[in-house]
Amino acid sequence: MKAVRQVLANQRLRRETGWALLALEHAPVALGLLQTHLGGRDRRLPASILLERLRRDLETLRAHGQEFPQTAENYLANWLRAGYLVRTFPPGAPEEEYELSTGASRAIRFIESLETPRAVATETRLSLVIQQLQQLAEQTEADPVVRLEALMRERARLDEQIEAVRRGHVETLPEERALERVNEVTALARELLGDFRRVRDEFARINRELREQIVENEGSRGEVLDRVFAGVDLVAESEAGRTFRAFWRLLTNPEQELAFEEALEKVLARDFARRLGPRERKFLLQLTRELLDNGGEVHQVLQQFARGLKQFVQSQAYREQRRLHRLLQAAQQRARQAKDRVRPASEIDTTLFLTSADLHSVAQWQLHDPGDEAVAQEIQLADEMNLSLEAVGELLAHSEIDFRRLREQVDQLLETRPQVSVAEVLAVHPARQGLGSVVGLLAMASREGVKGGEQDRICWEGGDGVERCARIPRIYFVREAHVRAG
Questions:
Q1: pTM value?
Q2: pLDDT one-digit tens code per residue, 423-463
C-alpha cells in the first residue's frame, strides 16, 4: 500500500507545472530561454522586449541547424497557457509584463543543481544539523537544573576560548571548510530567494479564497464581512501574512542590516574568498539588494491585496458579485434541467448577439495636444508638511538608508559640542539621500536621543533637484547617551 500511495502521489506531482516543464519535448529550449531572460538579473520583462529577445534567439538557433516550427509569439502563448509564465499588468505600465511562475522557477533551480552539483555529506552540513538540534534541545528544555548545567558548560567553553585568544592562540577555519560554509550559505540564500514567489502565490490564494467566501456567503453579514468591517486586514493577519511580516521586520531592521553587510564584507575580504567563482561572488555582493527587492515586492503585494479586499467590501462591490454569482448558479441549474430535453444541435429560436471589438484605422486617430490640459492660473506651492515619528517608522520600512554615514556625521559633531539636534546635523551635513537621510536621522534620534518641546524647519534637495521642506520634532543627540548607544 505504501508503494501505491507513493505512485499516486507522483502522478499528482506529474501534473504540477515544474514537472510538466521538465517533461516537454523541447524542454532544453524552453528552460534555456526562460532561465536566460527571466531567471537572472531580469526577473520581469515587458512583452515587447521578451518577444524581441525570443525571436532573436530562435533565429540564432535555427541558423545552427535547430528546428523550431512555431513562432516566438506561439511559444510565449503556449508557455503562458501551461502556467510556466505569469502575466501581470502593473499600474502605470504601458504594456503587460511576464515573469516566471513558481513551478518554472523550481524546475530551473533543479536544472542548475544538476549542472553544478553540490558536494554531499560535508562536514559543514553535518555541523549545521548538529548545532541546530543542540539549540532546539536547549531552548525547549523546561528543567531549570538541566538548563543551568548547559549554560555553565557553554560559559566554560567560552572562557577557554577567551583565555586562548589572550595568549595569542587564535584558531581559524581551514580554507576548505570555509569554502564549504560559503557554498552552504549561498545555496540556502538561493532557496530563500525562491521562497518569495511561493509566498506571493500564497497571498494570491488567500485573497482569492476570501473573496470567494464573501461572494458565496448568502447571509447579510458573514464572518469574513464582519472582520473586514471591523478593520481587520485578513490577508495580512493570515498565518502566511504574520510570518512574512515578522521576516520583513527582521530584514528591514537597520542594525540587523548593518551587521549583515559588515559580516558579508569581512567574509569576501578573506583569502579563501578569492577561490570563489565569479558567479558566487556576484551573488553574494548583490545578496542584500536581492533580498530587499524581492521582499519589498512581496510586501507591496501583501499591502495591495489587503487594501483591495477592504475596498471590495467597503465599496459594496461584493453585492454585485453576489448577484452575478446567483444568476450564474440559476443558469447552470436550468441548463442541467434542460439537458435531457434539448439536444445540443436543437433549434431554440433565440438570437444571440456576440460581443466584438470596435476596430478603427490608425489614420482616424487624432494626436493629443498637451496644451488642451494646461492650467490657466499659476500653480500654488503646497504648505510644508509635518513629519511625525509615526510617519518616519512607515518610511523606514520601505527605505534603504546609509546609517553608517549618518552615524559618522553625528559622532563628528558630538566631538566638539555636548549635544546636537537633527536640524543642526542637516545644517552642517546636507542630506545626501534626500528624504532618506532625514528619515534615518529621525529614526536614530527617536531611539537614543532626547526630545525637545518645539519643532524645527529642515530642507533637503530631492533627486529632481527641487528643494523641499518640512517641520520635524526637535530631538537632540546627547554625547553621553550617544556613546552608550554606540
A1: 0.52
A2: 888 888 888 777 778 888 888 888 788 887 788 888 888 77
Non-local CB neighbours of 110 within 8 Å, separated by 6+ positions:
18, 22
Q: How far is CA 310 from CA 305, 307, 315, in A?
A: 9, 5, 8
Q: Is the dihedral of CA 237, 241, 244, 249 positive or negative?
A: negative
pLDDT at 482 over 60: no
Name which of 95-109, 122-136, 304-318, 402-416 the model is least confident about. 122-136
Nearest to 123, CA basis, from 183, 182, 181? 181
Helix (H) or strand (E) holding 25: none
pLDDT at res. 349: 78
Closest by Cα among 68, 33, 70, 35 to 54: 33
> Which SS3 state, helix, strand or coil, does residue 137 take?
helix
Domain 2-115, CATH = 1.10.10.10
Protein fold of 386-485:
Arc Repressor Mutant, subunit A (1.10.10)
| Rg of the Cα atoms in the chain | 30
In the chain, what are the helix, strand and coil shares in percent, each to the nearest 5? Answer: 65, 10, 30
Report the distance separating Cα 74 and Cα 477, nearest Å: 63
- Close Cβ partners of 304 (under 8 Å, ≥ 6 residues apart): none
Domain ranges of the chain: 2-115, 190-314, 386-485
Helices 254-269 and 278-285 cross at an angle (nearest 10°) of 160
